Protein backbone atom coordinates (compact mmCIF):
# COMPACT_ATOMS: atom_id res chain seq x y z
CA UNK A 1 0.00 0.00 0.00
CA UNK A 2 1.14 3.55 -0.57
CA UNK A 3 2.58 4.30 2.87
CA UNK A 4 6.02 5.62 3.42
CA UNK A 5 8.85 3.23 2.63
CA UNK A 6 10.23 3.88 -0.84
CA UNK A 7 9.19 0.52 -2.29
CA UNK A 8 5.56 1.49 -1.98
CA UNK A 9 6.01 4.94 -3.45
CA UNK A 10 6.14 2.93 -6.68
CA UNK A 11 2.68 1.73 -7.64
CA UNK A 12 1.12 -0.13 -10.54
CA UNK A 13 -2.18 0.85 -12.16
CA UNK A 14 -3.44 -2.57 -13.16
CA UNK A 15 -3.66 -4.00 -16.64
CA UNK A 16 -0.73 -5.61 -18.46
CA UNK A 17 -0.25 -6.58 -22.09
CA UNK A 18 -1.78 -10.00 -22.71
CA UNK A 19 0.94 -12.56 -23.52
CA UNK A 20 0.67 -14.46 -26.81
CA UNK A 21 -0.16 -17.75 -25.03
CA UNK A 22 -3.10 -16.08 -23.28
CA UNK A 23 -4.44 -14.44 -26.44
CA UNK A 24 -4.21 -17.76 -28.26
CA UNK A 25 -6.06 -19.62 -25.49
CA UNK A 26 -8.87 -17.04 -25.47
CA UNK A 27 -9.28 -17.44 -29.23
CA UNK A 28 -9.32 -21.24 -28.88
CA UNK A 29 -11.99 -20.92 -26.19
CA UNK A 30 -14.14 -18.68 -28.40
CA UNK A 31 -13.87 -21.24 -31.22
CA UNK A 32 -14.90 -24.05 -28.85
CA UNK A 33 -11.53 -25.83 -29.09
CA UNK A 34 -10.86 -25.71 -25.33
CA UNK A 35 -13.26 -25.52 -22.38
CA UNK A 36 -13.50 -22.96 -19.57
CA UNK A 37 -11.35 -25.04 -17.22
CA UNK A 38 -8.56 -25.31 -19.80
CA UNK A 39 -8.71 -21.57 -20.46
CA UNK A 40 -8.53 -20.84 -16.74
CA UNK A 41 -5.47 -23.07 -16.38
CA UNK A 42 -3.69 -21.00 -19.03
CA UNK A 43 -4.81 -17.77 -17.34
CA UNK A 44 -3.55 -19.05 -13.97
CA UNK A 45 -0.11 -19.83 -15.38
CA UNK A 46 0.21 -16.51 -17.21
CA UNK A 47 -0.91 -14.59 -14.11
CA UNK A 48 1.66 -16.47 -12.00
CA UNK A 49 4.39 -15.41 -14.40
CA UNK A 50 3.20 -11.79 -14.49
CA UNK A 51 3.03 -11.53 -10.69
CA UNK A 52 6.49 -13.06 -10.34
CA UNK A 53 7.84 -10.54 -12.86
CA UNK A 54 6.29 -7.61 -10.96
CA UNK A 55 7.88 -8.85 -7.74
CA UNK A 56 11.26 -9.30 -9.43
CA UNK A 57 11.13 -5.67 -10.54
CA UNK A 58 10.73 -4.63 -6.91
CA UNK A 59 7.08 -3.63 -6.95
CA UNK A 60 5.47 -3.91 -3.51
CA UNK A 61 2.02 -3.93 -5.14
CA UNK A 62 0.99 -6.51 -7.75
CA UNK A 63 -2.08 -7.10 -9.92
CA UNK A 64 -3.20 -10.01 -12.09
CA UNK A 65 -2.81 -7.80 -15.15
CA UNK A 66 -6.59 -8.09 -15.68
CA UNK A 67 -5.68 -11.20 -17.71
CA UNK A 68 -9.12 -12.78 -17.26
CA UNK A 69 -10.92 -9.77 -18.77
CA UNK A 70 -11.62 -8.46 -22.25
CA UNK A 71 -12.37 -4.96 -20.94
CA UNK A 72 -11.32 -2.93 -17.90
CA UNK A 73 -14.99 -2.30 -16.99
CA UNK A 74 -17.64 -4.35 -18.83
CA UNK A 75 -16.54 -7.75 -17.44
CA UNK A 76 -17.10 -6.51 -13.89
CA UNK A 77 -20.29 -4.56 -14.59
CA UNK A 78 -21.93 -7.47 -16.43
CA UNK A 79 -21.48 -9.55 -13.28
CA UNK A 80 -23.69 -7.22 -11.23
CA UNK A 81 -27.35 -7.98 -10.61
CA UNK A 82 -29.61 -5.92 -12.86
CA UNK A 83 -26.93 -5.21 -15.48
CA UNK A 84 -26.97 -6.73 -18.95
CA UNK A 85 -24.23 -6.60 -21.56
CA UNK A 86 -25.12 -6.29 -25.22
CA UNK A 87 -23.56 -5.69 -28.63
CA UNK A 88 -24.00 -2.00 -29.34
CA UNK A 89 -24.50 -0.34 -32.74
CA UNK A 90 -21.04 1.16 -32.56
CA UNK A 91 -18.01 1.13 -30.32
CA UNK A 92 -16.59 3.88 -28.14
CA UNK A 93 -14.90 6.59 -30.20
CA UNK A 94 -11.29 7.29 -29.29
CA UNK A 95 -8.90 9.69 -30.99
CA UNK A 96 -8.99 8.17 -34.48
CA UNK A 97 -10.06 4.61 -33.58
CA UNK A 98 -13.15 2.82 -32.24
CA UNK A 99 -13.43 -0.05 -29.80
CA UNK A 100 -15.47 -3.17 -30.46
CA UNK A 101 -19.21 -2.49 -30.22
CA UNK A 102 -20.06 -3.45 -26.65
CA UNK A 103 -22.06 -1.77 -23.92
CA UNK A 104 -24.18 -2.39 -20.82
CA UNK A 105 -27.67 -1.42 -19.74
CA UNK A 106 -29.61 -1.60 -16.48
CA UNK A 107 -32.59 -3.91 -16.91
CA UNK A 108 -33.36 -4.78 -13.28
CA UNK A 109 -32.80 -3.66 -9.70
CA UNK A 110 -29.09 -3.16 -9.07
CA UNK A 111 -27.29 -5.38 -6.60
CA UNK A 112 -23.96 -7.06 -5.95
CA UNK A 113 -23.91 -10.76 -6.73
CA UNK A 114 -22.15 -12.54 -3.83
CA UNK A 115 -20.98 -15.14 -6.38
CA UNK A 116 -19.38 -12.48 -8.60
CA UNK A 117 -16.58 -14.28 -10.48
CA UNK A 118 -14.01 -11.58 -9.72
CA UNK A 119 -14.02 -12.53 -6.04
CA UNK A 120 -12.46 -15.87 -7.02
CA UNK A 121 -10.09 -13.98 -9.34
CA UNK A 122 -8.88 -11.92 -6.37
CA UNK A 123 -8.46 -14.96 -4.13
CA UNK A 124 -6.18 -16.55 -6.71
CA UNK A 125 -4.07 -13.38 -6.91
CA UNK A 126 -3.79 -13.27 -3.15
CA UNK A 127 -2.58 -16.88 -3.04
CA UNK A 128 0.33 -16.15 -5.39
CA UNK A 129 1.25 -12.60 -4.32
CA UNK A 130 3.84 -13.72 -1.79
CA UNK A 131 5.09 -10.78 0.26
CA UNK A 132 3.65 -8.22 -2.17
CA UNK A 133 0.30 -6.50 -1.70
CA UNK A 134 -2.34 -7.90 -4.11
CA UNK A 135 -4.40 -5.09 -5.61
CA UNK A 136 -7.83 -5.57 -7.18
CA UNK A 137 -9.09 -3.16 -9.83
CA UNK A 138 -12.77 -2.62 -10.67
CA UNK A 139 -14.60 0.18 -12.51
CA UNK A 140 -15.94 3.06 -10.44
CA UNK A 141 -19.71 3.30 -9.89
CA UNK A 142 -20.04 6.43 -12.05
CA UNK A 143 -18.88 4.41 -15.08
CA UNK A 144 -22.12 2.41 -15.05
CA UNK A 145 -24.24 5.54 -15.35
CA UNK A 146 -22.19 7.89 -17.50
CA UNK A 147 -21.83 6.13 -20.82
CA UNK A 148 -25.51 5.46 -21.47
CA UNK A 149 -27.09 7.88 -19.01
CA UNK A 150 -30.86 7.82 -18.53
CA UNK A 151 -31.42 5.97 -21.83
CA UNK A 152 -29.51 2.90 -20.62
CA UNK A 153 -31.61 2.53 -17.45
CA UNK A 154 -35.00 0.80 -17.66
CA UNK A 155 -37.53 3.47 -16.64
CA UNK A 156 -40.00 0.88 -15.38
CA UNK A 157 -37.35 -0.34 -12.89
CA UNK A 158 -36.08 3.14 -12.03
CA UNK A 159 -38.65 5.83 -12.88
CA UNK A 160 -36.62 8.20 -10.66
CA UNK A 161 -32.82 8.33 -10.83
CA UNK A 162 -32.52 9.07 -7.10
CA UNK A 163 -33.44 5.45 -6.37
CA UNK A 164 -31.01 4.26 -9.05
CA UNK A 165 -28.08 6.18 -7.55
CA UNK A 166 -28.98 4.98 -4.04
CA UNK A 167 -28.95 1.36 -5.25
CA UNK A 168 -25.73 1.96 -7.18
CA UNK A 169 -24.01 3.19 -4.01
CA UNK A 170 -25.36 0.23 -2.00
CA UNK A 171 -24.24 -2.22 -4.72
CA UNK A 172 -20.70 -0.87 -4.44
CA UNK A 173 -20.81 -0.85 -0.64
CA UNK A 174 -21.66 -4.54 -0.83
CA UNK A 175 -18.95 -5.14 -3.44
CA UNK A 176 -16.31 -3.42 -1.31
CA UNK A 177 -17.32 -5.51 1.70
CA UNK A 178 -17.24 -8.73 -0.35
CA UNK A 179 -13.72 -8.04 -1.63
CA UNK A 180 -12.63 -7.12 1.91
CA UNK A 181 -14.08 -10.38 3.25
CA UNK A 182 -12.18 -12.21 0.48
CA UNK A 183 -8.96 -10.71 1.89
CA UNK A 184 -8.57 -7.61 -0.27
CA UNK A 185 -6.89 -4.67 1.49
CA UNK A 186 -6.14 -2.56 -1.60
CA UNK A 187 -8.97 -1.85 -4.03
CA UNK A 188 -8.73 0.51 -6.99
CA UNK A 189 -11.76 2.09 -8.66
CA UNK A 190 -11.06 2.99 -12.29
CA UNK A 191 -12.92 6.06 -13.46
CA UNK A 192 -12.83 7.76 -16.87
CA UNK A 193 -15.79 9.98 -16.04
CA UNK A 194 -13.95 12.62 -13.98
CA UNK A 195 -11.59 13.20 -16.90
CA UNK A 196 -14.57 13.63 -19.24
CA UNK A 197 -15.94 16.25 -16.86
CA UNK A 198 -12.65 18.17 -17.34
CA UNK A 199 -12.93 18.19 -21.14
CA UNK A 200 -14.61 21.13 -22.90
CA UNK A 201 -15.62 18.87 -25.77
CA UNK A 202 -17.03 16.16 -23.52
CA UNK A 203 -18.85 18.72 -21.36
CA UNK A 204 -20.51 20.07 -24.52
CA UNK A 205 -21.63 16.54 -25.44
CA UNK A 206 -23.06 16.03 -21.94
CA UNK A 207 -25.07 19.25 -22.22
CA UNK A 208 -26.27 18.26 -25.69
CA UNK A 209 -27.83 15.10 -24.26
CA UNK A 210 -29.67 17.17 -21.68
CA UNK A 211 -27.48 16.75 -18.59
CA UNK A 212 -25.50 19.23 -16.51
CA UNK A 213 -21.82 18.21 -16.15
CA UNK A 214 -21.42 20.11 -12.86
CA UNK A 215 -24.50 18.43 -11.38
CA UNK A 216 -23.17 15.03 -12.53
CA UNK A 217 -19.90 15.74 -10.72
CA UNK A 218 -21.77 16.38 -7.46
CA UNK A 219 -23.91 13.24 -7.91
CA UNK A 220 -20.88 11.04 -8.66
CA UNK A 221 -19.02 12.45 -5.65
CA UNK A 222 -22.00 11.65 -3.42
CA UNK A 223 -22.28 8.10 -4.83
CA UNK A 224 -18.56 7.46 -4.28
CA UNK A 225 -18.68 8.76 -0.72
CA UNK A 226 -21.79 6.69 0.03
CA UNK A 227 -20.12 3.59 -1.46
CA UNK A 228 -17.00 3.90 0.71
CA UNK A 229 -18.72 5.18 3.86
CA UNK A 230 -17.88 3.00 6.84
CA UNK A 231 -15.20 1.03 5.03
CA UNK A 232 -12.71 -0.79 7.28
CA UNK A 233 -9.70 1.30 8.35
CA UNK A 234 -7.22 -1.25 7.00
CA UNK A 235 -8.71 -1.13 3.49
CA UNK A 236 -7.08 1.35 1.10
CA UNK A 237 -9.30 2.51 -1.76
CA UNK A 238 -7.76 4.30 -4.71
CA UNK A 239 -9.45 6.15 -7.57
CA UNK A 240 -7.73 6.08 -10.96
CA UNK A 241 -8.83 9.04 -13.08
CA UNK A 242 -8.18 8.00 -16.68
CA UNK A 243 -8.51 9.94 -19.94
CA UNK A 244 -9.23 6.83 -21.96
CA UNK A 245 -6.76 4.21 -23.13
CA UNK A 246 -7.29 1.99 -26.18
CA UNK A 247 -4.54 0.91 -28.55
CA UNK A 248 -2.43 3.86 -27.37
CA UNK A 249 -5.13 6.46 -28.10
CA UNK A 250 -7.21 8.64 -25.77
CA UNK A 251 -10.63 10.29 -25.49
CA UNK A 252 -10.55 13.35 -23.29
CA UNK A 253 -8.18 16.23 -22.65
CA UNK A 254 -8.02 19.04 -20.14
CA UNK A 255 -6.54 19.70 -16.70
CA UNK A 256 -8.26 18.71 -13.45
CA UNK A 257 -9.26 22.25 -12.45
CA UNK A 258 -12.98 22.00 -13.43
CA UNK A 259 -13.53 19.13 -10.96
CA UNK A 260 -10.64 19.60 -8.53
CA UNK A 261 -12.55 21.17 -5.67
CA UNK A 262 -15.25 18.48 -5.68
CA UNK A 263 -13.02 15.52 -6.57
CA UNK A 264 -9.98 16.24 -4.41
CA UNK A 265 -11.68 18.34 -1.78
CA UNK A 266 -14.81 16.28 -1.12
CA UNK A 267 -14.36 12.65 -2.26
CA UNK A 268 -13.01 10.60 0.67
CA UNK A 269 -10.74 8.34 -1.35
CA UNK A 270 -7.39 7.23 0.15
CA UNK A 271 -5.33 7.62 -3.01
CA UNK A 272 -5.84 9.41 -6.32
CA UNK A 273 -4.13 7.95 -9.38
CA UNK A 274 -3.77 10.87 -11.80
CA UNK A 275 -2.51 10.91 -15.38
CA UNK A 276 0.21 13.46 -15.92
CA UNK A 277 2.09 12.06 -18.90
CA UNK A 278 1.60 14.91 -21.38
CA UNK A 279 0.36 18.48 -21.86
CA UNK A 280 -3.26 17.25 -22.18
CA UNK A 281 -3.20 16.67 -18.43
CA UNK A 282 -2.69 20.31 -17.42
CA UNK A 283 -0.62 21.53 -14.48
CA UNK A 284 -0.27 20.44 -10.86
CA UNK A 285 -2.13 23.45 -9.42
CA UNK A 286 -5.42 21.52 -8.91
CA UNK A 287 -3.59 19.35 -6.37
CA UNK A 288 -3.88 22.22 -3.88
CA UNK A 289 -7.28 20.74 -2.94
CA UNK A 290 -5.77 17.42 -1.77
CA UNK A 291 -6.30 16.92 1.97
CA UNK A 292 -3.02 17.42 3.86
CA UNK A 293 -1.52 14.38 5.53
CA UNK A 294 -4.26 11.94 4.59
CA UNK A 295 -4.62 11.35 0.89
CA UNK A 296 -1.99 9.93 -1.42
CA UNK A 297 -1.48 11.27 -4.92
CA UNK A 298 -0.04 8.69 -7.30
CA UNK A 299 1.33 10.67 -10.23
CA UNK A 300 1.16 8.89 -13.58
CA UNK A 301 4.25 10.52 -15.07
CA UNK A 302 5.33 7.45 -17.08
CA UNK A 303 3.24 6.93 -20.20
CA UNK A 304 1.96 3.50 -21.25
CA UNK A 305 1.01 4.72 -24.73
CA UNK A 306 4.47 4.19 -26.26
CA UNK A 307 7.61 2.29 -25.41
CA UNK A 308 10.09 5.15 -25.23
CA UNK A 309 11.53 5.45 -21.74
CA UNK A 310 11.16 8.77 -19.93
CA UNK A 311 14.23 10.68 -18.78
CA UNK A 312 14.46 9.95 -15.02
CA UNK A 313 15.76 13.44 -14.28
CA UNK A 314 12.76 15.02 -15.97
CA UNK A 315 10.42 12.76 -13.99
CA UNK A 316 12.15 13.79 -10.75
CA UNK A 317 11.82 17.44 -11.78
CA UNK A 318 8.07 17.01 -12.27
CA UNK A 319 7.77 15.32 -8.87
CA UNK A 320 9.46 18.39 -7.37
CA UNK A 321 6.98 20.64 -9.19
CA UNK A 322 4.05 18.63 -7.80
CA UNK A 323 5.56 18.89 -4.30
CA UNK A 324 4.82 22.62 -4.38
CA UNK A 325 1.15 21.69 -3.94
CA UNK A 326 1.26 18.36 -2.06
CA UNK A 327 3.71 17.24 0.62
CA UNK A 328 6.38 14.93 -0.89
CA UNK A 329 5.51 12.09 1.51
CA UNK A 330 1.95 12.10 0.10
CA UNK A 331 3.23 11.60 -3.45
CA UNK A 332 3.82 8.28 -5.21
CA UNK A 333 4.81 7.40 -8.77
CA UNK A 334 3.21 5.07 -11.33
CA UNK A 335 2.53 4.74 -15.00
CA UNK A 336 -0.31 6.96 -16.24
CA UNK A 337 -2.59 4.02 -16.95
CA UNK A 338 -2.50 0.29 -17.41
CA UNK A 339 -0.89 -1.17 -20.52
CA UNK A 340 -4.03 -2.90 -21.83
CA UNK A 341 -7.33 -1.38 -20.78
CA UNK A 342 -8.81 -3.78 -23.33
CA UNK A 343 -7.37 -7.12 -24.34
CA UNK A 344 -6.00 -5.59 -27.56
CA UNK A 345 -3.36 -3.69 -25.58
CA UNK A 346 -1.29 -0.60 -26.30
CA UNK A 347 1.36 -0.19 -29.00
CA UNK A 348 4.50 -1.29 -27.21
CA UNK A 349 6.28 -4.58 -26.53
CA UNK A 350 6.17 -6.63 -23.34
CA UNK A 351 9.84 -5.85 -22.74
CA UNK A 352 9.12 -2.13 -23.04
CA UNK A 353 6.27 -2.59 -20.57
CA UNK A 354 8.55 -4.20 -17.99
CA UNK A 355 11.22 -1.53 -18.61
CA UNK A 356 8.62 1.15 -17.85
CA UNK A 357 7.63 -0.51 -14.56
CA UNK A 358 11.28 -1.01 -13.67
CA UNK A 359 11.83 2.71 -14.25
CA UNK A 360 8.94 3.55 -11.88
CA UNK A 361 10.56 1.46 -9.13
CA UNK A 362 14.02 2.89 -9.79
CA UNK A 363 12.96 6.54 -9.77
CA UNK A 364 10.82 6.06 -6.66
CA UNK A 365 13.80 4.48 -4.92
CA UNK A 366 15.98 7.50 -5.75
CA UNK A 367 13.39 10.12 -4.75
CA UNK A 368 12.06 8.59 -1.52
UniProtKB/TrEMBL annotation:
One of its GO terms (molecular function) is 5-methyltetrahydropteroyltriglutamate-homocysteine S-methyltransferase activity. Gene3D superfamilies: 3.20.20.210. It holds the Pfam family Meth_synt_2. The keyword Transmembrane does not apply. Residues 12-343 form the Cobalamin-independent methionine synthase MetE C-terminal/archaeal domain. Keywords: Methyltransferase, Transferase. SUPFAM superfamilies: UROD/MetE-like. Its EC number is 2.1.1.14. NCBIfam families: PRK06520.1. This is 5-methyltetrahydropteroyltriglutamate--homocysteine S-methyltransferase. It comes from Serratia rhizosphaerae.
Amino acid sequence: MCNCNHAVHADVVGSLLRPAALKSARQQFQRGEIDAAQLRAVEDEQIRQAVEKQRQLGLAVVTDGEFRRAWWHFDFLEGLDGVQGYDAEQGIQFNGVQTKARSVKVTGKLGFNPQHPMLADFRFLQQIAGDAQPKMTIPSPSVLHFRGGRQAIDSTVYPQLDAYFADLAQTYRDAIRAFYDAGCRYLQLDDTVWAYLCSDDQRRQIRERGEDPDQLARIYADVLNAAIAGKPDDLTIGLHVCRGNFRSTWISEGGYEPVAEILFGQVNIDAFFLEYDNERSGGFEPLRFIKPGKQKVVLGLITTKDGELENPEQVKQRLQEAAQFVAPEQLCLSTQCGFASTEEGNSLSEQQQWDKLSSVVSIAGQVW
